Hints:
The complex is a heterotetramer, with 2 copies of chain A (about 500 residues) and 2 copies of chain C (about 450 residues). In chain A, about 35% of the residues lie in helices and about 10% in strands. Chain A has helices at about 30, 50-65, 85-90, 95, 110-125, 140-155, 170-180, 195-205, 225-235, 255-260, 270, 330-370, 390-395, 400-405, 435-455, 455-460, 475-480; strands spanning about 130, 160-165, 185, 210-215, 240-245, 265, 285-290, 300-305, 310-315, 385, 415, 425. In chain A, helix 6 (about 140-155) crosses helix 7 (about 170-180). Chain A is globular and about 70 Å long. Helices cover about 40% and strands about 15% of the residues of chain C. Chain C contains 14 helices and 14 strands. In chain C, the strands form 4 sheets. Chain C has a 7-stranded mixed sheet with strand order 2-8-7-6-5-3-4, sandwiched between helices. Chain C has a 3-stranded antiparallel sheet with strand order 11-14-13, covered by helices on one side. In chain C, a hairpin with a 5-residue loop joins strand 9 (about 295-300) and strand 10 (about 305-310). Chains B and C meet through helix 2, helix 3, helix 4, helix 5 and helix 6 of B and helix 1, helix 2, helix 3, helix 4 and helix 5 of C. The site of one pyridoxal-5'-phosphate has 14 residues of chain A, from helix 6.
Amino acid sequence: xxxxxxxxxxxxxxxxxxxxxxxxxxxxxxxxxxxxxxxxxxxxxxxxxxxxxxxxxxxxxxxxxxxxxxxxxxxxxxxxxxxxxxxxxxxxxxxxxxxxxxxxxxxxxxxxxxxxxxxxxxxxxxxxxxxxxxxxxxxxxxxxxxxxxxxxxxxxxxxxxxxxxxxxxxxxxxxxxxxxxxxxxxxxxxxxxxxxxxxxxxxxxxxxxxxxxxxxxxxxxxxxxxxxxxxxxxxxxxxxxxxxxxxxxxxxxxxxxxxxxxxxxxxxxxxxxxxxxxxxxxxxxxxxxxxxxxxxxxxxxxxxxxxxxxxxxxxxxxxxxxxxxxxxxxxxxxxxxxxxxxxxxxxxxxxxxxxxxxxxxxxxxxxxxxxxxxxxxxxxxxxxxxxxxxxxxxxxxxxxxxxxxxxxxxxxxxxxxxxxxxxxxxxxxxxxxxxxxxxxxxxxxxxxxxxxxxxxxxxxxxxxxxxxxxxxxxxxxxxxxxxxxxxxxx
Amino acid sequence: xxxxxxxxxxxxxxxxxxxxxxxxxxxxxxxxxxxxxxxxxxxxxxxxxxxxxxxxxxxxxxxxxxxxxxxxxxxxxxxxxxxxxxxxxxxxxxxxxxxxxxxxxxxxxxxxxxxxxxxxxxxxxxxxxxxxxxxxxxxxxxxxxxxxxxxxxxxxxxxxxxxxxxxxxxxxxxxxxxxxxxxxxxxxxxxxxxxxxxxxxxxxxxxxxxxxxxxxxxxxxxxxxxxxxxxxxxxxxxxxxxxxxxxxxxxxxxxxxxxxxxxxxxxxxxxxxxxxxxxxxxxxxxxxxxxxxxxxxxxxxxxxxxxxxxxxxxxxxxxxxxxxxxxxxxxxxxxxxxxxxxxxxxxxxxxxxxxxxxxxxxxxxxxxxxxxxxxxxxxxxxxxxxxxxxxxxxxxxxxxxxxxxxxxxxxxxxxxxxxxxxxxxxxxxxxxxxxxxxxxxxxxxxxxxxxxxxxxxxxxxxxxxxxxxxxxxxxxxxxxxxxxxxxxxx
Amino acid sequence: xxxxxxxxxxxxxxxxxxxxxxxxxxxxxxxxxxxxxxxxxxxxxxxxxxxxxxxxxxxxxxxxxxxxxxxxxxxxxxxxxxxxxxxxxxxxxxxxxxxxxxxxxxxxxxxxxxxxxxxxxxxxxxxxxxxxxxxxxxxxxxxxxxxxxxxxxxxxxxxxxxxxxxxxxxxxxxxxxxxxxxxxxxxxxxxxxxxxxxxxxxxxxxxxxxxxxxxxxxxxxxxxxxxxxxxxxxxxxxxxxxxxxxxxxxxxxxxxxxxxxxxxxxxxxxxxxxxxxxxxxxxxxxxxxxxxxxxxxxxxxxxxxxxxxxxxxxxxxxxxxxxxxxxxxxxxxxxxxxxxxxxxxxxxxxxxxxxxxxxxxxxxxxxxxxxxxxxxxxxxxxxxxxxxxxxxxxxxxxxxxxxxxxxxxxxxxxxxxxxxxxxxxxxxxxxxxxxxxxxxxxxxxxxxxxxxxxx
Amino acid sequence: xxxxxxxxxxxxxxxxxxxxxxxxxxxxxxxxxxxxxxxxxxxxxxxxxxxxxxxxxxxxxxxxxxxxxxxxxxxxxxxxxxxxxxxxxxxxxxxxxxxxxxxxxxxxxxxxxxxxxxxxxxxxxxxxxxxxxxxxxxxxxxxxxxxxxxxxxxxxxxxxxxxxxxxxxxxxxxxxxxxxxxxxxxxxxxxxxxxxxxxxxxxxxxxxxxxxxxxxxxxxxxxxxxxxxxxxxxxxxxxxxxxxxxxxxxxxxxxxxxxxxxxxxxxxxxxxxxxxxxxxxxxxxxxxxxxxxxxxxxxxxxxxxxxxxxxxxxxxxxxxxxxxxxxxxxxxxxxxxxxxxxxxxxxxxxxxxxxxxxxxxxxxxxxxxxxxxxxxxxxxxxxxxxxxxxxxxxxxxxxxxxxxxxxxxxxxxxxxxxxxxxxxxxxxxxxxxxxxxxxxxxxxxxxxxxxxxxx
Lengths: 490, 490, 455, 455
Ligand SMILES: Cc1ncc(COP(=O)(O)O)c(C=O)c1O
Ligand SMILES: Cc1ncc(COP(=O)(O)O)c(C=O)c1O
């Protein structure tokens, strides 16, 4: 008796209602202020349901999800670590949640102190000179960062034309570069999974504005030649862009600024544990070296000169700035959470977190490398990739493996990315998981490999224990149904 | 692949820990203040788990429950109505949750104003003259109320010996009376489900201290002879006690005080929607008529004479009081919620709630009375009982029906109580359910009746879709296992 | 407003679908002149208005977010990990009833089973119930239970170190039964075994000793236990559960029953409730235990699971012969304690307890140096202690309250004769700086008031 | 502190179990002199200390719980039903990733599908995406999208009534591409069709009009739309979603795209974020839409369910050819909007919108009576309006802020020349009494400041 939760619209009964708002406080006459022609002809068909209907509906829906709070979630490159509840509580204090972005600066000094300190701490952690907190997510940060690079080059008389990305890079890298007006040059990775220096050499010229690297890269390896790369890139006058999605490996362990990166973005919703929320909100602060500070988005947060105790204020007067990339100052509520997280840890705690992340990844890798192909033998950083090629030959794809894992109560790894590894399984356990949890996951992975040798067909129909069976994604795209009772078939 | 959640103890790994407290802030030397012999020899074997373990464990456990927030929960006599979230939020405001019971009265005037108003509003709703908010639940209120009755009679020279309860009464009634030192006389109900006046007549004498009635009674009927009963009871100098568990039928519709009840208790966790919490906390305020006010527990909340604006304070000087029935002033957090609930409704809202409760019950009864036996034909109040006798003859018990309902996503009614109805199913839909929900439940009940005629064996093994199959309660009592790895077998 | 989803039109059509014409027909059995009384209640509020009104009321209280509070005396301000609020606030726990339908209540049931286990381990005893209302009523239930064990033992002895409100509650509960209650006075704030020996006899059902006691003093429980058991009486210990991270457990010093206030285990002070009455005892007493009990058993497939058990003790089965009348208890608070103890673990609890000792001793030392203040008791204490004040404690506390410091609980609250004593509590929620500013303010106010009194 | 459950000993043994001796061996590829930089960060805090520190910081801000705020200008204080916070705070929503594994993410997916449906119904358009970052970046995405439709249309026109920060964001986004941006000035606070007619041409990709516009004025969208469509350009409407409970919907007046700030739909103002960029458009544009999209489909058993769809538009498939670079969006905020709209229903939303009209008009009337204050615009408005102040608005606002009233947003913030104007917003969160006390304070301060300026 599978009970699927109906749509909220299907629960609607004309005349039913929740009662949070008063009826007819507003008198008809005041609406007279508005010309009839401006008024909506038919009320929007929102559901008419009671409060208990709403509570039940969304409570039940929530229960259909896997989440960090309920499941081990080793989704590679996403850093699904524990999201401390204290951070959420801090962000929802009325002193943070109920302040308006246009309040006088004097009335929000606590918020400004927090933001100022957060910028400073992120500089310290990454080795950069200045940080903007404005971008709303990683991709937004990339776009912001590349625009800064563009302005930097423009100020030197040539904005240049190209941005280099490795073939293992995340899709947002080329996409962001393109949106910023650059042509994208993709270079193949070496056999060792790292940047191929000769390929880089070949691609580098005076028209290259920047190269975007993720480090550790998306197969979980530290770019061992990073210092050499920096030299080659800077020699051509190009800049080094750091995609911070994998910073969780390096907190207190090594700093992109020290490696020579000129511009970076961070994903606070990854490395700094702010909750992913089912796909956001995130926060993608951008850090730059001194030479690029002038280009950061406005307004900039500054300490009022001479103020003691420190007073903070917003400063709009940055003629070289790229301007605003969104309204107001960033995803403030997310920033509060990240600040809380960093304050909890201090330098020691951050370092221990990255150490734990790396050890967890290596421990898990060691348990699995006999059973699945290990394309890059040797130690990994905070995550690693396996290849399901062997299993593919036995009849089960990486997707099958992913789906079957759900039946064991584990979220699947990232699959089919990076594309340079066949039947790729990208596994990031994070530091907040105990050895016990990793052992359980490894056992499941081993059992699945065994199931494949015994009965590969079984996997093709997995998962078996989820609220639904495997979804038909092809049908979804062909018979588009993206809103209830829409004209779009279904 | 049924995943049962292990015990938190089974997740324990020596050395693991959540990190909410600092390590060794306390220096060893200060413990030197305590003689060695006072110190614990072996640390208590609490689990050693991480914060993420804790979050996952209790999140998953929560998902194993049925609850009002997830399921229709027509548990008779329990008034499982919607518990508005605003009430919880109010109770957790620091101005309520973070005040200490021994703070100076001047520093808690908001709390005292709220309590004072709540007492007054409950008097108004019930028609009583004074209310104490101290008792923690219904049974506690009963005990408090009967002790007041005892003091009342004592003050008149004879505490009397007996308390009368109908055979349909809740178990706490006789139990509370007994604890207060009374002999319990149980009288049989009439065929119509109401008090049998001749049985009452017979039981009444000058040694009867009180009769305890629930009204509407536990078969969901208003005691139609209540005015006559009052006359008979008062004529003997006995008092009328009102068990308020079913007050949800009467809000704004009729008042126990007007019916002649001398002492009442309320279940704020029923009629006033404070969450049940899986079995408490509740609140069981007791209301009395003027003649009994002097006996209420101490301290009493009073308005400081002459204060304007009103100032409130606690008054301990009540020489005739029965004393305290617990520490401090009652389940304050629960009282905040009930206060919020009443303020939301006002008189009109309460009246509409009871009207809705009665209509919902009658609507549902009409849908089911053809399929299950209806021992008390005619309209009911806010709940009704059915008998599963017909189904029993076909091979399925009330318990089987209850268990099978779970498979349909509905909590079971109260079963086997009151004992005067065979295979009793006591159904209380409450006012917060929509017609649509009642229709769904009725369909399930009808389908179950059909299943019984078709295949009664199917029901004997229900439920099928719960996290566990039917529990062996006999084994639980025989091979007592009430703590993990205890000496108690299992 | 109300939470009735059905519109008035819908309600009327439901009346008709039930076979009636009007709502009045449904309530025909309610006598006419009782119907529809006018209720003088404040006008209904929308949720928006309610949010405002409740914030207004709350803002008229001075909470420990604004004030530095050194109040204890049975209700303790402790650090509460955020996850306790979050997890216990989940609707599936919050809005479930007592777990009568085991199969649909495994979450609540397993939590209670874990709670029972935790409380057994914490107190060192064999069995725990699922909770009672609070410490005071729990102690009174224990008195009932002990008196029921042997009809020849009709007396109980209560140490004067037991919380005065608990004693008052015992007296109230005892109104309906025949029992002699003797209160055993203290010497230097502690119960003396020799005094106890003079009082306990073979008519004694039970002896109640609180440790740390109401005045903060850690009692010599082992010696007291020997005296009690010497006469065959039950030894009922009333511990502060946080102290058990550090101090000997009731099971270790031979108590038969441990009962008390579980509030320190993750519950806010919340003006006195809802709290948690915990109750553990030896195996021998299991069939006499008051309240609910969860047992582990198996389902029809042989898989483990949980259900309420030994219900034959309870009111809904046994009615007037039940061991207690309790029905609804404090389940959600037991959940809070379970989460709290899981979060802390053995080391965390030890750490918290140790900090209470360290900080309260630091505070005591500093206060003892304030001109005119003294510590009248010399015994070891846990996290609270009595201070003798140079001026009436109530005046002192009121003055300090105006400066945002709740300095302590004046003992005159419990004994009008003790005008110049207050009970001061210091938990891990206070820093040394907090204590220093308290002591500075105390010094200042004590001087000022004293001068005022003299001059 | 940290959230690593494994002890140091455990970690070391895991290193060894992985076949290494030391942690250093695992990071051999990190150049030696990059390793273990010293980080100058504040010392770690325990959760108890953190609770204190964050409360300290929060208490240094004046929130709308303490002050009466009449600020709007793109971020609106609205009533938020309590269930919105409760339900959106459930960990299963909160701590899930983007729903890549459909079978394990049906909760999030169904919510987004419901969100999409709601936004379509609210705006009267055919398709909604799953969310964008916020109103400003959403508008910029719309500009990108329109410019991509036809290579011959390289110009966009933006009404001067569009939020200045949105315009700034469009300009920033446009840095990388070839586009001409024309700003269309207002007359009496509104965009005039005749002015627009003079500017729009066949090289125009799109025209952006906000209504109610930044100055609160409701634009004549229908007429503007006619002009735009006359030249084959896209009509991009930027509505306040709350206003759509009452005002004509973009679909009703012929907009091709509706994009804007969803914050009013149940999100706290939270100093500017996280908010919600909503985006709906006509069916014709579905394959060009930026961001994620959830579709309904069937599983292998034929049962209905949900999954991400049309992913071929997105960066992870198309890389540099994607319609947008967006990946993480604002899913949790879409959840809040979904719960909010479900709670209000059509009547609730209408009621809220009507109250905004009624209260803001009441406020405007009262303010107009204040000596020296004027309402410079005469057009119909929704919930905010411009006030001409007798003294510099910034001074006035700062003075009133000290009395706990945020009187409005000085327009000098956006245009230094507009020194004596402010934008005042009134929502259902204010009562008539609130407005009266605001007006009284305004009168008082205006007089005082004016006297000071004169004297
Ligand atoms: C390596 C990498 N870069 C960039 C991104 C994009 O970040 P966001 O989703 O925050 O926009 C991701 C996200 O998965 C990523 O893994
Ligand atoms: C009729 C009746 N009386 C008394 C009670 C006892 O109330 P409580 O559980 O609050 O102690 C109940 C509870 O179910 C009840 O239904």
